[in-house]
Amino acid sequence: MFLNTAVWIKVMLAILVAFVVSIALTPFVKRLAVKVGAVDVPGEARRVHDHPIPRMGGLAIFLGFIVSTLLFADITQEVRGILLGSIIIVITGVIDDIISLRAWTKFLIQILAAVIAVLHGVVINVVSNPNVFSNQEAIVLGWVAIPLTVLWIVGITNSVNLIDGLDGLAVGVSTISCVTILVVALLVSEPNVALIVAALAGACIGFMPYNLNPARIFMGDTGSLALGMALGCLAVLTKTEFVSLIIGGLFVAEALSVMIQVFYFKSTKKRLFLMAPLHHHFEKRGWSEVKVVVRFWIISACFAAVGFCIFFAQTMVA
User: Fold this and answer.
1) Percentage of the chain exceeding pLDDT 70
2) I need a labelling partner for 212 at 20 to 30 A (CA). Which of 22, 27, 98, 127 fits?
């Protein structure tokens, strides 16, 4: 259950330091993005703004996250793997925000980053047995654990990336997920994971004032890919992969909307959604950007509440 006061103080400090670093560095990152040409220019179908806006804001989130993590968390082998993988993802995101890398290039690098985390011990070794009639509560994965974990991390990474399409949407939903996973980590007595999630949450909150509508800077792939990588790995460390899918249910819904749209279009040559991912569908239906974002935040909070209740019920039964 909940840990002692000293852990809570460190958690609050981790949030505060990450927040201060993130909010202080975002203006500098904004100027850097303009200088290196990491700017989002209107014109494409999915662009909802009418003037150029700097990308690469995720660099401020990452710096807030890593400074706070290095200050407050124990750098275990697993944490080292997450940080090394995240650094690779952030470097890739920065390059992509400047020159737009090909999708397969980013995908291969994501696999590399996931493999690095896995080799440092971030592995899904056991899953709950889906057979309710079996006396065996869990299944040991064996050799399947490594490819499954890589698939999990890469999948979550891209799910978070897909939701980054409207001002404040990705950073808001990520913050909700981080805070919920933070409470889960405290409940399962994982203080080190709690400190890392706290750092991630604080960094997201620090970036939020610059990213809310009308956004002055976007997090870009630098932020969305790194957030996805971190959230995927942290779910593994807390051994709450299934619950994390519910907590991050909106990420899952956005990813599914893309897959369903592609499958439906290939099968019928028609579109099921007006546009995918899902948030663009509602925009096409006439919802304002702010309306979509606020309602998606509420839906995300509902997913997080349901996921937490399931986790809490499982904890009480155990």
Assistant:
1) 92
2) 98
The candidate with the shortest Cα–Cα distance to 29, out of 64, 74, 1, 3, is 64
pLDDT digits (tens, 9 = 90+) for 239-265: 888 888 899 999 999 999 999 999 999
- Asked if residues 176 and 301 have their Cβ atoms less than 8 Å apart, the reply is yes
Q: What separation, in Å, do the N-terminal and C-terminal C-alpha atoms of the chain show?
A: 12
Please, is 4 exposed, middle or buried when counting C-beta atoms within 10 Å of its C-beta (0-12, 13-18, 19+)?
Answer: exposed
Residue 56 near residue 216, CB atoms below 8 Å: no
The Cβ of residue 9 has, within 10 Å, a number of other Cβ atoms equal to 10
Rounded to an integer, the average pLDDT of 118-125 is 93
CB atoms within 10 A of CB 129: 13
- Write down how long the chain is: 318
Query: CA triplet 58, 62, 66: central angle to 5 degrees?
Result: 175
Assign 234 to helix, strand or coil: helix
pTM, entire model: 0.91
- The three-class DSSP label of residue 241 is helix
**Is the torsion defined by CA of 79, 84, 88, 90 positive or negative?**
positive
